[in-house]
Amino acid sequence: AQKITQTQPGMFVQEKEAVTLDCTYDTSDQSYGLFWYKQPSSGEMIFLIYQGSYDEQNATEGRYSLNFQKARKSANLVISASQLGDSAMYFCAMRVKGAQKLVFGQGTRLTINP
Amino acid sequence: DVKVTQSSRYLVKRTGEKVFLECVQDMDHENMFWYRQDPGLGLRLIYFSYDVKMKEKGDIPEGYSVSREKKERFSLILESASTNQTSMYLCASREGPANEKLFFGSGTQLSVL
């Protein structure tokens, strides 16, 4: 079975600082994908970034990067130069190749202070 | 842009009522999903559908059923709502099984009194 663990229920960061949101995963499969989604107060889940298990480079999308450490089974999200609009819930998720569903972590509520 | 629309943002129902949550996507996606979101538990899959009239149970299907009569519409049904079904319900769609990205609706916050 697959499992995603996000150990930080909440984080508070000053505006313009970089922030790292932790995510560890557990699977015995070799082929899988890792995702991060953002959920603002409006409720909609917004896709941020994707990393495949065989991708050699860490994924980056603008201010978002995924620090993928396969041996440690971690997939931390790094947000550079945080902005007030980054305040939201953040979910890490995994999909094993061949499976239909995404498995989600518990989420981390990020608050950016001015 | 893909749009996934959930019919209600907030819904209040009474115990024992039959509840329909509707979800429509406008991009001809094959796969559609219903998740339930609870604090501290993240999102858990209730049901998914990989084509019209095709469905599979997710991790927590008890107390729920689904209907997919048309490709664009995926309905979640609570046959007899109970207070433990008070939750945020999120619908999502995906182009096909080979695609990775899920597109989500804005969610329906259901309260069962």
What kind of sheet is the major sheet of chain B?
A: 7 strands, mixed
How many DSSP-defined strands of chain B? 12
Shape type of chain B: globular
**Number of helical segments with 4 or more residues of chain B:** 0
Average of the residue pLDDT scores of chain B: 93
What does the oligomeric state look like here? Answer: heterodimer
User: Which class do the helix and strand fractions of chain B yield?
Assistant: mainly beta
- Run of helices and strands of chain A: EEEEEEEEEEEE
What proportion strand of chain A?
Answer: over 45%
State the helical fraction of chain A. Answer: under 10%
Average pLDDT reading of chain A: 94
Order of helices and strands of chain B: EEEEEEEEEEEE
Low-confidence runs of at least 5 consecutive residues of chain B: none
Alpha-carbon Rg of chain A, integer: 14 Å
Count interface residues per chain for the largest interface: A-B, 23 and 28 residues
Q: How much of the polypeptide of chain B forms β-strand, as a percent range?
A: over 45%
Describe this structure in words.
The complex is a heterodimer of chains A (114) and B (113). With 114 residues, chain A is mainly β. Chain A contains no helices and twelve strands. In chain A, the strands form three sheets. In chain A, strands 2, 5, 6, 10, 11 and 12 form a six-stranded mixed β-sheet that branches. The radius of gyration of chain A is 14 Å and the shape is globular. Helices cover 0% and strands 53% of the residues of chain A. The model of chain A has no long low-confidence stretch (mean pLDDT 94). Chain B has 113 residues and is mainly beta. Chain B has strands at residues 4-6, 10-13, 19-21, 23-25, 31-38, 42-51, 54-57, 65-70, 73-78, 87-94, 103-104, 108-112. In chain B, strand 10 (87-94) and strand 11 form a beta hairpin. Chains A and B meet through strand 5, strand 6 and strand 10 of A and strand 5, strand 6, strand 10 and strand 11 of B.
